[in-house]
Design goal:
The chain is an alpha/beta fold. Helices cover 30% and strands 16% of the residues. Helix 7 packs across helix 9. The structure holds alpha-D-glucopyranose and calcium ion.
Length: 551
């Protein structure tokens, strides 16, 4: 990041999944006027950036990540005037509005695709990726991320088109210069309208190998294999650099790339200043991978590794949650006995790390996963596909459903819980996706009034970041701790310093005296309701922040 772009270090980003935030007109679907009505919630929290998941016109095969008109608003969400009003209101409150930019693919209902598929020689013929059949079949063995082949046959052209996501999300052909011109012009129009940045969706797959070789990865249960030479090709980085040069840099936009980065060197390629790509990156890891491999030690190693790699040059997007992951308190914390303390614990841990914190709607009140009783109750295409693959691999329906309940992206997409009424105050109609019945106890209204709520913990953390530049600018280190000891970290920006100790477990643990030697005044504790830090042991999921004297 260049010195002039230092302001990104002061952001706290709140992500809204518009479909599930607040419904203003009783049709069961969240919308833009709903967001406008609830902007006070963001203001109270203290965030200064808002990332909106897609609100463009879309037939909603993948909840707006399938765009049929980049210059218009989804009917269910409202109108362009509603968007303008929201943008204006954000501006007044000092909230930077960040749009999701989905340009790896469009909807198959986008007029470009409708034209492209009609014949081989129309003006938009090259806007998508078309290949002839090979021996009467798909051009190669690649699997779509959402199941089945990544190729779909179109009789009008006698050809297949490539879709890395669902078949209603055909990949755009970035090799086509005319297409790139349209996309760049579109981005400029949004910048003209006052957009403050883009979260750039699924951006690692823009460049495709011309020959589309078969993948050597083992097949999925349905016979297709995930691509082994698609993500992070040099050509993709070149396209991102072109966007940076032509749009991001001249318009001074904040950019967050959603990237597939199997190791830290690849992550660096997207965010090192000299490469002129993104300000920060959200590495995408499929939920099932995290559920199976996650541990506090691994988390610590990953944080340490990305810190070392980017501390001289680069920046971090910090998040535990988004619309593609299970709820953080259910995944990394304990949504039962330690629900409140573990939710605060995770907030305190994340907000102590170097980088820009992202808060996903509902995490600030500790919203949890929801186990829906039948697979038909799940709306997410990814969940349904995974379920099908698990059945094909021989799992019985009950076990496959249990897995879906754990992994489903719908866990994060249940409507926001505003109050204790049946639909959580989200809608007066029938919600598009079931509201978690625990809205009777977990909701915004109660937590706004309760000085010891999770919501208040988030407010304090965000306020602390504003008061103490050590959190946004300070140096970072994990202190050496052994097994059975808490995680400990320091942030330093002389003369200021901060110490955080974290017991990432359900067992109490002793805090070695050496950790507390330089600790000053306790600032915040996940046990504030119980009177705060008492020492010398940490209770289950106890997190404590102290002032610290840097040497
Ligand atoms: C990204 C989005 C996800 C979407 C996919 C396809 O991973 O976060 O929700 O399904 O891209 O656009
Ligand atoms: Ca609505």
């Amino acid at each position: 990041m260049t010195a002039e772009k230092d302001w990104i270090k002061d952001l706290v980003v709140y992500q809204i999944y518009p479909r599930s935030f607040y419904d203003s007109n009783g049709d069961g679907i969240g919308d833009l006027p709903g967001i406008l009505q609830k902007l006070g919630h963001l203001e109270e929290l203290g965030v200064n950036a808002l990332w909106l998941s897609p609100v463009y016109r879309s037939p909603n095969d993948d909840n707006g990540y399938d765009i049929s008109d980049y210059q218009d608003i989804m009917e269910e969400f409202g109108t362009m005037e509603d968007w303008d009003r929201l943008q204006e209101a954000c501006q007044k409150r000092g909230i930077r509005l960040i749009m999701d930019l989905v340009v790896n693919h469009s909807s198959d209902e986008h007029p470009w695709f409708v034209e492209s598929r009609s014949s081989r020689d129309n003006p938009k013929s090259e806007y998508y990726i078309w290949r002839d059949p090979v021996q009467g079949r798909e051009p190669n063995n690649w699997a779509s991320a959402f199941g089945g082949s990544a190729w779909e046959y179109v009789p009008e052209r006698g050809q297949y088109y490539f879709h890395y996501f669902s078949k209603k999300q055909p990949d755009l052909n970035w090799a086509c210069q005319d297409l790139r011109e349209e996309l760049v012009a579109m981005m400029h129009k949004w910048a003209d309208k006052g957009v403050g940045g883009f979260r750039v969706d699924a951006i690692s797959y823009l460049d495709k190998p011309l020959d589309f070789p078969d993948s050597a990865l083992p097949p999925q249960p349905d016979g297709y294999s995930f691509p082994d030479c698609l993500a992070g090709r040099p050509g993709t980085h070149a396209y991102i650099q072109e966007l940076n040069r032509r749009v991001f840099a001249p318009r001074q936009l904040l950019t967050v790339g959603e990237v597939s980065a199997p190791h830290v060197e690849e992550l660096c390629r997207y965010v090192r200043t000299a490469r002129e790509e993104f300000d920060m990156a959200i590495p995408f890891v499929p939920p099932m991978v995290e559920i199976d491999t996650w541990s506090p030690q691994k988390l610590k190693r990953d944080i340490e590794e990305s810190w070392q790699a980017l501390r001289e040059d680069g920046w971090w997007a910090r998040f535990f949650s988004n619309h593609d992951k299970p709820r953080q308190v259910s995944l990394y914390g304990d949504d039962g006995a330690y629900w409140e303390v573990s939710a605060k614990f995770l907030a305190m841990f994340l907000h102590s790390l170097p980088g820009t914190p992202f808060v996903y709607q509902g995490e600030e009140i500790g919203m949890t996963n929801l186990k829906l009783p039948r697979i038909e109750d799940y709306k997410d295409p990814d969940t349904r596909n995974r379920y099908r693959q698990l059945l094909l691999s021989g799992l019985d329906p009950e076990a496959a459903l249990a897995r879906a309940q754990l992994e489903s992206r719908d866990n994060a997409r249940t409507p926001m819980q505003w109050d204790a009424t049946e639909n959580g105050g989200f809608t007066t109609g029938r919600p598009w996706l079931q509201v978690n019945p625990n809205t009777r106890t977990i909701h915004v209204e109660a937590q706004r009034q309760d000085p010891h709520s999770i919501f208040q913990c988030y407010r304090r953390l965000i306020a602390l970041r504003k008061e103490q530049p050590v959190l946004s600018r300070g140096d970072f280190a994990f202190l050496e701790t052994g097994p059975g000891e808490p995680l400990a970290l320091t942030r330093t920006l002389p003369p200021e310093g901060l110490l955080g100790i974290f017991n990432f477990s359900r067992q109490p643990c002793q805090v070695p005296a050496r950790l507390l030697e330089r600790a000053g005044e306790p600032l915040l504790s996940s046990y504030d309701r119980e009177g705060g830090w008492q020492g010398p042991a940490l209770r289950p999921y106890e997190a404590a922040l102290f002032r610290w004297k840097p040497v």
